[in-house]
Amino acid sequence: MDDLARFCCQNPDCPASGQRDAGNLSVCARYGKHHHIRLLSCKACKYRFSERRGTPLFHTHLPEEKARSVLHHLGEGCGVRQTGRLLDVHRNSVSRLAKLAGKHARDAQDELVAFSPCDPRGPGRRDGGVRRHEAEAL
Q: Which of 37, 39, 57, 121 lies 20 to 30 Å from 66 when distance is taken between CA atoms?
């Protein structure tokens, strides 16, 4: 069984919101076709949420391995229709999963950039260099 240290309470009003490995989460139920998805409960605020909440797999019926295969095929350059045919997944499901994964990646990148330290040199310059000035002279 996977430990709960990588999860945090999803309730923004919870005093333990965003704190990983705080010891405030417990598994209160399981759901899904084979009861493989855990429903977590926060002891601090009694909020219940899925372990898939906040991921591209939330509200999908695809198994995790098949979803990873879909994203791997798309990352390798396969098209939506081709990925659907190869993995026996509907093209709309492939497209929806790609959109959700892209949004999740963008949000994660924005969060990481917000916490990164500022560069003491300031923002990068975009003056175009010598070639731009030569092109303007012509």
A: 39
Return the pLDDT at 130.
58
Select from 18, 14, 20 the least CA-distant residue to 43.
Answer: 14
pLDDT tens figures, 81-96: 999 999 999 999 999 9
pLDDT in tens, 44-75: 888 888 887 877 777 777 888 898 999 999 99
Strand partners, 50: 39
Residues contacting residue 73 through CB under 8 Å, at least 6 positions apart: 82, 83, 86, 87
pTM: 0.61
Residue with tokens 């990068």: 124
Would you give the distance in Å from CA 73 to the centre of its chain? 17
Q: Which two tokens stand for residue 20?
A: 């990983």
